[in-house]
Every structure is written in structure tokens, then in C-alpha cells.
Protein 1
Amino acid sequence: MSTAPFKRVAVRQPSPEELEAIRRDSLTLEAATPEEILAWAVEKYFPKLTMATAFGPEGCLILSMIAKIEPRIYVFNLDTGYQFRETLELRDRIAEKYGLEVDLQRPELSVAQFEAANSGPIYERDPDRCCFQRRVVVLRRVLKDFDVWMSAIRRDQNSNRADTPIVGWDKKFGLLKISPLANWTKKDVWSRITSEGIPYNPLHDRGYLSVGCRPCTVAVMAGEDERAGRWSGTAKTECGLHVQDD
Ligand code: SF4
């Protein structure tokens, strides 16, 4: 049983030609709709294409598109063991509405084993290590079977995400990453959710603008930053999945 944090793993490096082709694809898709981007990705990469979702509004929106365009895409959630009950119930609501079963991918150790190995929970005293072991390690395990992964991040979510390309090379995990909603706004997302009746996490109606794990998420005040409720009171703003190591 290893609890060693932040272990670096050698990942595939693309050639300069591949990087140039990726850059061109991304530029071409700048004016495409998310559905067109998704259809392009399916045509080019399915079945070596997957999607991770934390069941945020953007993820639920992409799942609704996947259900129409290619429901056989493997979709999964990083189930840290610390998620809200409402989040896990949303998984069931999506399965019921769209017939899409989002797989729950769990760390090797249960929460009880993990906390026993660390003399208690570490989300307060070392959230980076907790996220690394409960999320990043699991994501790496899943992604090794795919060439491309999709995320639901948007450029306007925070400064870390402002330069997100539609298609880019993920240096951290060593594969292609597609973000069909990169140039959508929060308003675009919610207007589609409302008009199509797409299921979303009821915690959003209770002041939780961005929902992560229960111990690290709080409701925010009107006007606060979209991700202010995540790791509130600390400098941490990302769980490490969408941050590129240099
Ligand atoms: S969000 Fe909190 S509980 Fe969840 S993995 Fe990260 S530190 Fe641990």
C-alpha cells in the first residue's frame, strides 16, 4: 500500500508535427458548436475517446450531447469517496433520463483505509496530496487505455483555464484533451440546461456554484467567484486534473 504523493510518471510526448496538427485542429474548431466538436472527436477518435465528469452543469450538458451523438463513449466519474449524496444521485438521474451509465472509478483504498493509513483525513492539512491520491492517480489509471479525453472546462471559469484550447496536448497525462465547451460562457451553459431540462445538481440552487467533494466545498455569496467555494480559505483552486505540470 503506497501513500507516497506526487510521484512523477513518464508520459508520451508528441512530435512537433503532431503538435502542429493539433494546433491547426483546435483553431479550425474555434467557430464550431460543442455538438460539432463532439461529432468531430467521435469521427476521428472513437472508441479511444473518453470523458471524465464531476457532474457539474457543463459535464451534464456534454453528457446530454453524448447521449445523442455517440452513447457508447466511455464516461466516468472520479469517485473519491467524499462526494455529496446529491452528486451521486445525479448520476442515477442522468442514467434514467439518457440511458448513460457513468462509471464510478474509485481509488485503490477506501476512505476508511486511506484515513487509517494517514492517521485521519488529510483534506484539511494536505488537500493537494488528498486530491492527488483520490483523483489524479485514479485518472491516470483510467486514461492509460485511451488516446483522447474530454473535459467540460470553460475558459471563463478562472485564470488557470483562460487559455484552454478546444484541442490540446495534455502534458500531464500524455494524451490529447478536447474541451468542447472551452469558449462557452456560464450563461450559455445554463440557458441550454434550462431550455432542454437537463438534470443538474440541486446543490447549485442552494448557493454551491461549483461542487466538488463534501469536505472541501461550501456555498458562496451572490457575486462571488464561480469557484470561490472550492477549498475556501486556502490558496488552492484546482484539484490538479486540469493543471499542466511543467
Ligand atoms: S476535493 Fe478535498 S476531499 Fe476531495 S480529493 Fe481533494 S482534498 Fe480530498
Protein 2
Amino acid sequence: MARKGKNRKRKELCPRCQKIKVLTKHHIYPKRYGGHANQYNTGYVCRECHNKLEYIIMKTEQMYGTKRRYKLEKPRYREIFETFIQAPSL
Ligand SMILES: [Zn+2]
């Protein structure tokens, strides 16, 4: 679903929690590793779900219980995102 400019603040259905919310753009392959903001690398979830998703990514990147975050293999980020938005809300 393409969303640009003006439509960004419109409330829409969050695929994760199934609530009508203002959605936040998520970079599937992280921006900090050079992930692009194009339609192939972005997905939309509400802010609360986005926080949870970023937390899951952080925990997945922190291997061996250290604070250091390790870059995962690129397909893993898409897998995390797709698993996340398919999971039933709690
Ligand atoms: Zn949500």
C-alpha cells in the first residue's frame, strides 16, 4: 500500500494490533545500516507496535547477552518484521 506525503498522519489499521491508529514508518532493513525509505524496505505499524518491534530487533541483535548490537544477515530483518505483523495481538 503506497502512502506518501499528506496521508502519513491519517489513521489506519495497524496490521499488528488491529487498532485504527496513526501509523509509523518502519525501515525493514535498518536505516542505521543504510536501509532505504522506499516501498520495498518500509512497512507501517502504530507507534506502540513499532516500539515493540524495535525492542525485538534490539534483543535479536544483542547476542551473548552483551550490550553490543550485531548486524544480522539482511533477510533476518524482513523475517522479523513479517513474523511480527502476523503475530496475533496480546
Ligand atoms: Zn499496533
Protein 3
Amino acid sequence: MLLYNLNLMNNHANILYLSTIKTEELDLFNTDSKSNLLPYDGEVIYYSYIINTEKSQYYYDKLLASIQWQNDKAIIFGKLIITKRKVAWYGDKSFEYTYSKTTKSALPWTKELLELKEIIENKTGEKFNSCLLNLYHNGDEGMAWHSDDEKDLKKNGAIGSLSFGTERKFLFKHKETKQTVSVFLEKGSLLVMKGKTQTNWIHRLPPTKKVKSPRINLTFRTILTKPNS
Ligand SMILES: O=C(O)CCC(=O)C(=O)O
Ligand SMILES: [Mn+2]
């Protein structure tokens, strides 16, 4: 157990260190010998700056302006809750995705989303057919503990999570041991969750008073296609 903890501290130290490096060139030190951030029961890989600072700003601006952002809805204990956080759902077809007891129908890909999908498919060797986007206006907005294990998603399918805008802390918690792992999601970074991660771990984006500016997150996913869709 001590080894795991040390390993996590090292990973975290790397991530903090890399957050101060602004050039793509130095990422050469940090390429594909990626280690798993989770100690067991799942696989989470973090890629720092897969998109450089200038392009990250470009995509942030384009996504902010072109995505059909809507306040998210959830039914919790029978009550309809409208979140301040905004969301959008895009995909290959008008796939339906139900989470928090509400259903969304996917919009057709935009140019920027297709470009980003290609970048992360090339990076990970995975294929994705849909993307859920989140816009957090500031640190007051976050996301509660959950796992992305809805029946509409491919079981144990990879999820590729791209971040733009302000860096935020992201946490994992094991469902049984309650061990937690944290990672800072920098602009232009990619976090890949795969294997049994969604079965054994929950994750959250904690609210924080320290963050005053917005962040956009894209989670590329594989939705299961229904026979006649
Ligand atoms: O904002 C994030 O980094 C992750 C969001 C998330 O977990 C989700 O959309 O399911
Ligand atoms: Mn999630």
C-alpha cells in the first residue's frame, strides 16, 4: 500500500511540474510510456498538453460560441433540478442518452468536435461515436460523485476527456476501499478512463472557491446503437 501511495504522489508531482511547462516540445519527455493513475481495479491515463496553449484557446473560443449549450437537468428524489453548469450532447446519429433520469438526443457533430475526436482517436487508438460537453462558468460549478456506467454506454468502453480553459482538480474514489486519487486537468490535456474504471470507481469535479474562470470539458464516449437506429 505504501508503494501505491508513493507512486500516486510521484504522478501528482509530475502533473504539477508539467503544469508549469508551456511548450509542446518538452512534452517529449512525457510521451507514451504512460502509467496508470489508478492503483487497481481500473485504468486512467493522463496526457498533458496534447493540444498546445494557442490551439487550446482557439478551441475554447470556438466551442463556447458554436456549441448549443443548455443548462443541465436532473431528477433527484423526484424533483427536477436545473444546473448552472451547461451541457451539450453530440454524436454520429441522434443517439439517446439517459442519465440522472433525463434523456438527451444527440446533435450532429460540428467541425471542431470532429477535429478533436480525430486527435484523441489517433492518440488513444480508440473509436468514439458521441461526446458529452460540460461548461463550468467558475469554481462554484462542479459535478457530484458518479460513474459513467449508464446502460446506453458500451460496458467498460473507453472515455476520452479533453479539457480547455481553467485547470480544475478531478477526483476518483474506489467504491469499496474508498481510496481516492486526484489529478489536475490542465487546458489541452486528455484523461482516458478505461477498463473496469466505471465499474469500480466513482469520480467528481469538486466545486472550489479558488477558481473564478470558466472551463470546458468534452467526454468522448461510445453509445450503444439500438437495432433500428
Ligand atoms: O468535467 C469533467 O472533467 C468530467 C465531467 C464528467 O465526469 C462527465 O461529464 O461525466
Ligand atoms: Mn463522468
Protein 4
Amino acid sequence: MSLFDFDDAFRKYLESKYASESKKPTIGRYWPSQLGYCLRRQYYRFRNPKPTNPDSFRFFERGHVFHRWVADVLANTPGLKVLASERSLSIVDFKTDPPFTLDGRLDDLILVEEQDTGQRILIEVKSTETPFSMLEKPSRAHVLQIMPYLLSQHADVCCLLYLHPNLASKTFTIPYDKAAMVELMARGRLLDSCLRVGEPPVAEARMDPKSDWECKKRCEYVEECSKNEK
Ligand code: SF4
């Protein structure tokens, strides 16, 4: 028997590192990374927070390991200058009363400058196990998520970099799209108003065969949703 139990050390490390993931979120502050997913699920997260499944922490950690690795590769790529790989974002929408805030961190994104052209490029790293043959276009939630960062960092484009556990990659280049930014803010406004009146948004993932994977694979609120709980 080994004297050292790495699994146990890793579990404790993950629990302490990601403890804040299970904290109750605050109405009025929303994350761009969540707003592209089922809004009803986000609503239940605010109304009835549940502890994050510890298995998800491994997934978060893998994302951070990939991020650090990509930042290191880019920092050593001739002709590229890494400008930032961690920065916070806060956009306030004053159209609502009270106003709501889009809060985020650039901690999954890396901002680089191409030295020949001066182009500012955001790199958003996503780990995925989906075979690339099935990944014909980036997820809409990922496209929406990057819009406030493109806007606030004055970046020319974003490269959504999907990385497989075997480190193979597939990249999509996405320019800023005002309509996508408007859609993201409208989703934030809708979630905010639903939370303030205590009325859940429609079960959008369940109603769309392209996104019902979210109900089957990820959602902790299937029971509440099927009963239309408030
Ligand atoms: S079960 Fe599906 S539709 Fe209902 S809240 Fe969860 S993800 Fe949304």
C-alpha cells in the first residue's frame, strides 16, 4: 500500500480551489459564460443553489491546465506578444431598473498582439471531448460569451480554440458581432426580470432538440423544471 494517496490530495486541492463555485450567486450580477445556456437552469441556480458536483471540478481544472499550457505556447511563439491572460470585466446595463452587471474574468482567455500587423487577437480555450468531425461550428453559447470581451478589450477577432485531451486542436475565428452582443444583453435582462418577479423563463433547452443535451447531461434541476416550480 502506498503511503501517499494522490487521489485524496487532489480531491482536497480541488475542493478548496473551487469552493466558491458553490456559493449563492447574487441577483443583478451575471456571467457571460453562463448566459448562453438554458436561462431556466440559471434561474434555478439563483433561486435554489445546489452544491456543484465534485466531478465538475476536474473538468474546471483541466480547462485551467489547458489555459496555462496555451498561454505558455503563445508566449514562446515568434511574432506574437501576450498582452494579458488574466483581467476582469464588468459591463453595467443601465436599461434595467435596477441596472444589472455582466461580470467576468479574462481567466479563460488570452489576449495577444500579432507584431507584424498589430492585430489584437483574443484566444478562448475550450476543452472538449467531442470528435472534431462533429464540431462543424462553435457553440452559440461560446460565441455569445466572447462578445463582451471582444468589445472591452478592443480586440479585432477571437479565436475559439477547442482542445482535445490528446492536445489536438480546432480553431474558429470569430469577429465582433453587434447582434450577438445585443442578444447576450437581452438574455441577461430577461433572466434579471424573471428573478425579480419570481417567474421562471421558458424551459428553452427542453424545447429545442439541438440543446436538450443540456437537460440530459448537465442539469441539476430536471425535477423542478418538469413541475414548473418557481
Ligand atoms: S431540465 Fe432542461 S429546460 Fe429544464 S432547466 Fe434544466 S436545462 Fe433547462
